[in-house]
Amino acid sequence: METFFNNLKKFRDLSERSKDTLLPLFTRIEYKKGETLIRCGKPCQSLYIIEQGYCRAFNIQDGLEVNLSFYFEFDTVTHKNSYVFNIPADFAVVACEPMIVHRIDKPDLLEATRQCPELEETGKKNLELIAAKQERQMQLFRILTAKGRYEFLEQHDPALLQRVSISQLASYLGVKRETLSRIRNKRMRSPIL
């Protein structure tokens, strides 16, 4: 868990009192590949911090799974609207490989912020990061071609390209697997500037 607190330093250095208040509220959970963290149609009132492994958020469109996002080590996973407004989630999140996560439930986190107000600032910054990631993805699809989206990931998120299967990646980029294979093959043959 110390690595987790070190990761939080990007938001704010936490006092020992805040760490001592926060730490017991987390539940360590191990997920097998394919197990669900967040269920579509059910409210999500928890935050999940990934220690090991990765997962994907997806929904079903026209009978097909469409990948919306991927989360890796030290990312925070939640359904932001469901968490904030206590409404059913409109996507699911499943483990793509064995995972270890630390879950904290909203009522516990709210109580911790009442006891240690500095945690509220850290929590807000974490939710801002989640929102920024979602906004970045929306921008990718608004302004870039499929090739441009792939090139953007090469530069800004190479771990995603290395760990995610080609079929999952194609779904995420909004292209057919064959199209993504052509893009990748052309990129491998041409020098990267």
TrEMBL record:
Residues covered by the Cyclic nucleotide-binding domain: 10-106
Record InterPro entries: cNMP-bd_dom, cNMP-bd_dom_sf, RmlC-like_jellyroll
Domain of life (superkingdom): Bacteria
Alphabetized SUPFAM superfamilies for the sequence: cAMP-binding domain-like (SSF51206)
Protein name: Cyclic nucleotide-binding domain-containing protein
Source organism: Niastella yeongjuensis
Organism classification: Bacteria, Pseudomonadati, Bacteroidota, Chitinophagia, Chitinophagales
